[in-house]
Amino acid sequence: MSKEQVSISELLLSLDSLELQEAEQVRASVNQQLSSDRGGAVLSSLVEYYLDSSSSQAVLLLSSIRESHHKLLLEKLNEILGRPGTRLAALTLLGHLIRKQPPWVHHVSRSALLPSLLRCLKTDADVVVLITGVLVLITLLPMIPQAGKQHIYDFFDVFGRLASWSLKNPGHVPVVHLVHLQASVYSLFHRLYGMFPCNFISYLRLHYSMKENLDTFQEVVKPMLEHVRVHPELVTGTQDYELDPSRWRCYEVHDIVIECSRLSLDPLESSCEDDLPSSSSSAHRHHDTSFAPPTETPSGGSFKASGSLSPPPLTHITSDIQVQCHVSG
């Protein structure tokens, strides 16, 4: 082990010190080492420290790295996402980082991390990983809208798989877990319909015209369609224009989120979803940086196939998962 690694390891032991002055000095020292970290050893140590401790201070330091170091961080996140034992912690860390909207977040769309996230959502069988991953994707989409040109059908495949999973429950997971998954899929539906309506409706028409998918349409997707307004782009837009990266040049992240929420007929979803990606307050409020299903059904209603009650809004799900339970990395 190099001298630099020993130094950063010793510093990290005091990163979450209750002594404010000591903690500030440690943060300053770690920041200094990060700024001169050419090989990525310091950054890697900080990520590994987060995996062991779920440290909110580590999240703050990682979210403030220079844009020139983004490639090393995204490569490290991709590495730990690929390890089953650290996958949930990797998704949790990624979620907290992107909610702070660091200046390098747009690079996610051109990194190996995005395909890895999508592959995880299309293949993983752990419901907690799936819920966490969907929340990350929902938050990330308005930050990288241009990724739709390359990954639009991956986004739709994730929705199709998880919509079916939430109905058929192949993993025989507890009902409370399904409530959180259903609510997450419901919010993903809103995001995809709001951002890519022409392509998404075309996908729904094709996918749910297949006999084997009719039950999922009737029980899951149809109630979701009954809770949205007709998207104006379905009249004036085209599938090609939706995927044109130039379409998004005049949009900020919060603009996209608000446009999505305006299409919802669900007052809870439309009022609570507005401030999730555009505010870092959520990350500051919740210092427990792991996601896990709560021990009881969250407030805000439960999902019914009839559509008479809508799923709890995304912010309720995020809060309940974070606050009520803790899963160690």
UniProtKB/TrEMBL annotation:
It holds the Pfam family Hamartin. One of its GO terms (cellular component) is TSC1-TSC2 complex. It comes from the Eukaryota. Keywords: Membrane, Transmembrane, Transmembrane helix. InterPro entries: ARM-type_fold, Hamartin. Residues 274-316 are annotated as: Disordered. The chain crosses the membrane at residues 127-144. Coiled coil: none annotated. Residues 297-309 have a biased composition (Polar residues). One of its GO terms (biological process) is negative regulation of TOR signaling. PANTHER family: HAMARTIN. This is TSC complex subunit 1a. The lineage of its organism: Eukaryota, Metazoa, Chordata, Craniata, Vertebrata.
